[in-house]
Amino acid sequence: MANIPLVSLNDGNRIPQLGFGVYKIPEAETVDAVLTALEAGYRHIDTATFYENERAVGEGVRRSGVPRDEVFVTTKVWWTDNGYDSTLRSFDASLERLGFDTVDLFLIHWPAPKHDRYVETWRALERLKAEGRARSIGVANFHIHHLERLAAETGTVPAVNQVELHPWLPQAEVRAYDAAHGIVTEAWSPLARGRVLDDPLLAGIAAKHGVTPAQVVIRWQLQLGNVVIPKSSTPQRIRSNLDVFGFELDTDDLAAIATLESGERTGKDPDHLG
Q1: Pairing outcome for strands 6-8 and 14-16
Q2: Confidence of residue 274 (pLDDT cuts 50, 70, 90)
Q3: What is the mean pLDDT of the chain?
Q4: Is beta strand 20-21 parallel, antiparallel or unpaired with respect to 44-46?
Q5: Which fold has domain 6-191+224-233?
Q6: Could you say which of 42, 51, 118, 177 is catalytic?
Q7: Region of residue 31 (phi > 0: left; psi between -120 and 50: alpha; otherwise: beta)
Q8: d(CA 132, CA 42)
Q9: Are 158 and 119 in contact (CB under 8 A)?
Q10: Residues paired with 227 in a beta bridge
């Protein structure tokens, strides 16, 4: 089993640096995917209301035989439920679907700034944290100006900011802001939905280390200090994505990967969703 590093959060909890994402895995396939991941050694599963597979995530954790307190589970409130009372209702529904008493991390999935409800949503998360039902709370897809508004109007700094982050979009400014304010940066779409893996530069680095391009990118994420949640429903890839602790990228590799930055997103700009 891989010895996955634990990253300290600003609230005293810790999160496994490498996790397993279940976005776009159909609910009918999610139990088996979660079982495969936990059997391989993952101890961090990332889901969301929007993914429509929370029930299967909870079932996979239970069937695995791994004690609940050894599996870090994240879920999220979808932007259409942003708002104080609606967020509390969404959280209750997520817990019921998961079949858990608590979640390890609860995130605002998108700020949806045009609706101007993310501050009151954050106040609901502060309550859930105070009640102990969400052990840690954070945000996803927050630009720096969204984080600055939370800092100005509320009393709790997010533990995590989960953003789209890959070699095309390394998010240097967001990572720097997060680091300066004690927020852990977590990468979703860490492989740019697989599209970045065809780059010959990554193929060359992979050949040099005797690994796959996906392993190179996941290793790059870890060396940047990010928490990273690659997703796959293929057992071989699930296991391969975890096998990234037997090599290290050198300064030449990191400099080469830095040249891939283009600003291209695979998802929406957070200011434009909703």
Answers
A1: antiparallel
A2: confident
A3: 97
A4: parallel
A5: TIM Barrel (3.20.20)
A6: 51
A7: alpha
A8: 24
A9: no
A10: 186
Q: Is 109 annotated as a binding residue?
A: yes
Q: Name residues whose C-beta falls within 8 Å of residue 19's C-beta, 6 or more positions apart in sequence.
A: 42, 43, 44, 45, 46, 72, 74, 227, 228, 229
Nearest Cα to 224, choosing from 167, 267, 274? 167
In the residue annotation, 51 being an active-site residue is answered as yes
DSSP 216-269: HHHHHHHHHT-EE--B-SSHHHHHHHH--SS----HHHHHHHHTT-----SS--
| Dist. CA 45–CA 54, nearest whole Å | 10
Q: Taking the domains of the chain in order of start, what are their residue ranges?
A: 6-191+224-233
CB contact at 8 A, 49 and 22: no
* Span 212-256, pLDDT tens digits: 999 999 999 999 999 999 999 999 999 999 999 999 999 999 999
Phi, psi of 135 (to 5 degrees): -70, -35
In 3-state terms the chain splits into helix, strand, coil percentages (rounded to 5) of 45, 15, 35
Task: Give the single-character DSSP code of 183.
Answer: P
Task: Please tell me whether residue 274 adopts helix, strand or coil conformation.
Answer: coil
Residue indicated by tokens 């060396």? 223
Helix (H, G, I), strand (E, B) or coil at 40: helix
Look at the pTM and tell me if it is higher than 0.90.
yes
Per-residue tokens: 66: 């791994």
